[in-house]
Each structure stands twice: as C-alpha cells, then as structure tokens.
Amino acid sequence: MTTRYTEDHEYIKMDGDIGTVGITAFAQDKLGDLVYVEQPKVGRKLAAKEDAAIIESVKAAAEVKAPVDGEVIEVNEAVVADPSLVNTDPEGAGWFFKIKVSDVAAVAKLHDETAYKAMIA
Fold it and tell me: Considering all CA atoms of the chain, what is the largest pairwise distance in Å, rounded to the nearest integer?
C-alpha cells in the first residue's frame, strides 16, 4: 500500500485504484479536537483539490480536499458518529472516505513521506 500526501495535509493510501483519504497527524494536531464531520455522498465525482468533507474542531472549521480526481465509493460513518477517532488515529481508523481514482498515475505526483516530512519540518 502506497501513501502520498498533499500540501493541504491530506493523505491518500492506495490499494490498486482505490484510495483511502484522511488528514495527517500534523493537520489534526493543528486543528485540535474534532467535534463534527460532514462526509461527501457516495457516488460523488471529485476533482483534485475539490472540497470533499467538512470538519469542525474546537479551534476552526476546515475542508478535506480530494487529493486526486475520483469517485467516492465509501465513507467512514464511524468518524461522523465519533469525530474523536480522527484525533486518536488520524492516519488509521480516523480516515474519511475512499475514492476510485480516475488516474492512478496522478497519485505519484503527490508528496511521498520523505518530502511531506521535509515540508512540515
């Protein structure tokens, strides 16, 4: 499974042409405790950098953007019911949605872990 990162602090974990999208631990730390999550609808087609999910924390509201073009095939209802999952495990159980990626090659243009860590350093 390959993981790539955006400049907006989303990650996408690829398994074939399916990507699991969430926010990084860095982003979660900056936002603080999440209190609300609004997911995109299954079947929604997203363009890269398009707002997909809405999150609210005790500090701010933010959008989770689509890292690449694709169609939402699944949402994580657990984070809607319990947004604190994003706080405790942002890059694991706290994922937001899965997309069927339109162009898998586009994922390679995102930051790898080394480049992402350098960016946030």
Answer: 37
| Residue 73 burial by Cβ neighbours in a 10 Å radius (0-12, 13-18, 19+) | middle
Model confidence at 3, in pLDDT bands (50, 70, 90)?
A: very high
What is the average pLDDT across 112-118?
A: 97
DSSP 9: S
Token pair in block for residue 83: 């947004």
In order of 1, 18, 45, 86, the CA distances from 79 in angstroms are: 22, 19, 21, 7
3-class DSSP string for 34-93: EEEEECCCCCCEECCCCEEEEEEECCCEEEEECCCCEEEEEECHHHHHCCHHHHHCCCCC
> Residue 88 and residue 33: Cα distance in Å, rounded?
9
